[in-house]
């Protein structure tokens, strides 16, 4: 199962590992920051959506 929001299609974000004590030749790698996905039942179907979509849905339902 992929870590992608089923509504907006957001996946991961690539970020650099930052540490002030690293030298010029001691290169830092990069890491993947994953999206915060939650399970939600929408129209009788169980889907994985990000918290951004979850928050916007709760605003439109009221």
Concise structural overview:
With 62 residues, this protein is an alpha+beta fold. It is built from 1 helix and 4 strands. The protein has a two-stranded antiparallel ribbon. Strands 3-4 form a two-stranded antiparallel ribbon.
Description:
A two-stranded antiparallel ribbon has the order 1-2. Strands 3-4 form a two-stranded antiparallel sheet. It is elongated and about 55 Å long. The model has no long low-confidence stretch (mean pLDDT 87). With 62 residues, the chain is an alpha+beta fold. It has one helix and four strands, in the order E-E-E-E-H. It has one domain. It has one helix at residues 51-61, and strands at 13-16, 30-33, 37-42, 45-50.
Distance between the termini: 31 Å
Number of helices: 1
**Overall number of domains:** 1
- The neighbouring-strand order within the major sheet is 1-2
State the main characteristics:
62 residues, two-stranded antiparallel ribbon, two-stranded antiparallel sheet, alpha+beta, 1 helix
Summarize the SSE layout with pairings.
Layout: E1 13-16, E2 30-33, E3 37-42, E4 45-50, H1 51-61
Antiparallel strand pairs: 1-2, 3-4
